[in-house]
Design a protein that fits this description.
alpha+beta, Rossmann fold, Thrombin, subunit H, nine-stranded mixed β-sheet, six-stranded antiparallel β-barrel, 10 helices, 37 strands, about 20% helix
């Protein structure tokens, strides 16, 4: 939903963060008035899961808990200045009272953050301020759609926020007002049908709203972020062990690690990146496209730095020593401390969280409510009470592969279940209330394997039971383990990677409307390529080129995971010329094009032509400040390729799982000082790809060397490679739809 607010009292910076349903629960009257000279930080978080008369949500309270923790630990908001309104508190009267109260308490130097997570809807526009669709957007309170209780309209919010005296108010909306259907049984939309009780909105005019047409509208001076465009669905589903609004979760991740002084555009790009990762995890063909609205000059101004610098570089949780060799991450689940996740431990009071300088690392074993019990490495390390932990590696997706049977006739269900269980030892058949990784359906005599959204087709299989089940098992097992590569991430990294396909249109200037408001829509749609047919010319539609930029000197490794789980190390590779970014080293801040040209005789010495299979590919780029980490990643990828190749189509799930675990373990060690990673002495020469590996499905045929370049600066001019005792690494992905 996109809400538009006029500014009635001068310059106001609003980042409207409405996120569907809000968590956390404090007394409404506990917040102290802000001092104009002190520049207080204050927040109002509203979340609703349990509605009286409309479908419930599951992630809104979690959204609010997470955002509260991020505001406190990352941005220095005092807990006593954060008011939360949840479920039964968030009635229409309760919401309006809390909104008016925070406006009344705010001083001109204060920083204000307002966040809504819950259902949104629409009602007929009664004052003519919505000429496009003639509908007012609304927020649905907890008691909405009962009796004579109307929704809260954007016109009402306009009047309230128009009284804010500060330049530094931030508001976010994770709700939607119209949506499309999803077949996923575990992902819900945050919208309810349009309210047709128009008489309720006519009967009780809001002071100030009826005169809006007579007021000369001032140029709006705020930043607005919404979870979806007004015609799209905002989604609520399971992420990192518990439910969240996808937009709220992505925003919390961006705000947890974004640099001090980040602009709305930079924070928005972080949201976009995280949503793409969620899209890959759930196998969704599409995702909602969040929107950013602001006057053009505010798009490049710091978003959360107005009331002083934040106290730490990252969001963190407190650590308490437990039994020998273990610790407790206090309320760790709020920041994603799921079993299997890895955390870096720093001393009490730490704020910089320098990569590679942690005291120890800890792996979460199990949860005790919201607290996480974790095992220390090294086990004998003494950890002080009130030490701090930051996320280092997210949890793996687990050994079990959850599959749901969708629209399978009862006469076939038992046989299909038995054949799948026979062929996939780690299969877990799940019901409609659990999150699957894949769905299985039937169409006539064909068995269809679908992605988690129940829409994207992964594969279709014919034949007798053994034949189709073996085909499904091969794709499911290999894809499940290959997808583990996509969970390898370093939330505490200082490296930032900008990755895009070269044929994507360059970001243009945002469209500016009549009120001087620029609108930026997130790009969450996959890039599209076609399989290059034999004899056809090489073009930007059938041959991949990537633009990569890292914010510091780094070594990059590029990996492709195709729709059937085939894994290929794209770069560095056997065909690359020695002078083309040796060892994958790139200069910080420089945009590089790989390969450099699609013309004959390019400088790279290779091309990435698309070949079968069709489907959704994911390209993951790893960057590291040290060569050793890059070599380790490349070697492990080659071992993964070799394991799949030797099985000749029969998947050894255990061997593939061990290969992924070895990468995870080696990366985890790099978080702590005093833990030395020993390189594998049997490694191949860095940057080489075996010929056997290059025959994997989805591996692009590579062509002969060349010398021409279209865009990239001459890669032979290489400065001194990055050095230093504290290695750092990061990763990011793009999704590509490969068509026939």
């Amino acid at each position: 939903m996109l809400m538009r607010y006029s500014t009635l009292t001068g310059t106001v910076l609003l980042l409207l963060v409405a996120i569907g349903c809000i968590a956390a629960h404090d007394q409404v009257g506990a917040q102290q008035p802000g001092s104009p000279s002190g520049g207080a930080k204050r927040a109002l978080l509203i979340g609703i899961n349990k509605y009286r008369a409309v479908p419930k949500l599951q992630g809104s309270l979690n959204d609010i808990e997470t955002m509260k923790r991020v505001l406190v630990s990352r941005w220095g908001f005092p807990e006593e200045n954060i008011r939360t309104l949840t479920d039964e508190q968030a009635t229409r009267d309760g919401m309006l009272t809390a909104l008016n109260l925070i406006v009344n308490e705010t001083g001109p130097l204060d920083t204000v953050y307002i966040h809504y997570s819950g259902h949104g809807s629409q009602v007929a526009d009664l004052n003519g301020d919505e000429p496009d669709d003639q509908l007012d957007e609304t927020l649905v309170p907890q008691d909405g759609r009962t009796g004579a209780i109307p929704d809260i309209t954007d016109d009402e919010l306009d009047v309230i926020f128009g009284r804010l005296p500060t330049k530094n108010a931030f508001i976010v909306l994770d709700s939607c007002h119209s949506g499309t259907a999803t077949r996923s049984l575990d992902i819900r939309t945050r919208s309810v049908p349009q309210d047709i009780r128009v008489d309720l909105y006519q009967a009780a005019p809001i002071p100030g709203v009826h005169t809006r047409g007579a007021i000369q509208l001032l140029p709006a001076n705020f930043v607005l972020m919404t979870g979806a465009a007004s015609h799209q669905e905002a989604l609520d589903g399971p992420v990192e062990g518990r439910y969240h609004g996808f937009f709220s979760y992505a925003l919390s991740k961006s705000l947890s690690s974004t640099p001090v002084g980040a602009t709305p555009r930079e924070i928005f790009r972080g949201v976009e990146t995280e949503l793409k990762r969620i899209q890959t995890h759930f196998g969704r063909a599409s995702m909602p496209e969040p929107q950013l609205e602001a006057p053009p000059d505010l798009l490049e101004q710091p978003l959360l730095g107005a009331a002083g610098n934040p106290p730490s570089r990252l969001a963190w949780v407190e650590v308490k020593p437990a039994a020998a060799g273990t610790i407790t991450l206090v309320n760790g689940l709020i920041l994603g401390a799921a079993p299997g996740s890895t955390w870096a431990i720093y001393p009490p009071g730490e704020t910089t969280f320098t990569p590679g300088r942690a005291l120890a690392i800890a792996t979460v074993m199990h949860l005790d409510g919201q607290h996480a019990q974790a095992k220390l490495h090294p086990a004998g390390k003494k950890i002080q009470d009130r030490s701090r932990a930051v996320a280092s590696l997210p949890a793996s997706t687990g050994e079990k592969i959850p599959v749901h049977l969708l629209n399978v006739p009862s006469s076939q269900r038992k046989q299909i279940e038995q054949m799948l269980q026979k062929q996939i030892p780690n299969l877990e058949l799940v019901g409609p209330e659990q999150a699957p990784r894949y769905m299985v359906s039937t169409q006539g005599s064909t068995i269809q394997l679908l992605a988690a959204d129940g829409i994207q087709l992964v594969g279709a299989f014919d034949g007798n039971g053994d034949e189709w089940a073996a085909g499904v098992a091969m794709v499911v097992s290999r894809s499940a383990h290959a997808s583990e590569l996509l969970t390898l991430d370093n939330p505490s990294s200082q490296l930032k990677i900008d990755l895009r396909v070269a044929n994507a249109p360059a970001p243009g200037k945002p469209k500016v409307g009549t009120r001087g408001i620029a609108v930026v829509a997130a790009d969450t749609q996959p890039a599209r390529y076609r399989i290059r047919k034999p004899g056809k010319p090489r073009t930007a539609e059938n041959t991949l080129q990537l633009q990569v930029k890292v914010n510091a000197d780094a070594y990059i490794s590029i990996v492709d995971v195709d729709s059937e789980g085939g894994v290929n190390l794209l770069f560095p590779n056997d065909y690359a010329k020695p002078s083309f970014y040796p060892e994958g080293f790139v200069k910080g801040g420089e945009t590089v094009l790989i390969p450099d040209s699609l013309h004959d005789s390019n400088r790279a010495g290779f091309y990435w032509d698309y070949s079968p299979p069709k489907g959704m590919d994911t390209v993951r780029v790893f960057s590291s400040t040290d060569l050793e980490t890059a070599q380790m990643i490349r070697q492990r990828i080659k071992e993964l390729q070799a394991t799949a190749s030797k099985t000749a189509g029969k998947i050894n799930s255990r061997a593939l799982g061990e290969s992924i675990d070895s990468i995870r373990g080696d990366l985890a060690k790099r978080a702590a000082r005093g833990i030395v990673a020993i390189s594998d002495q049997t490694s191949h020469q860095p940057g080489l790809v075996s010929a056997e590996a290059s025959t994997e499905p989805g591996t692009p045929p590579l062509a002969v060397p060349s010398t021409q370049s279209d865009i990239v600066a001459t890669p032979e001019v290489i400065s001194t490679p990055p050095a230093g005792p504290a290695p750092d690494w990061a990763a990011t992905s793009i999704t590509i739809k490969v068509e026939g």
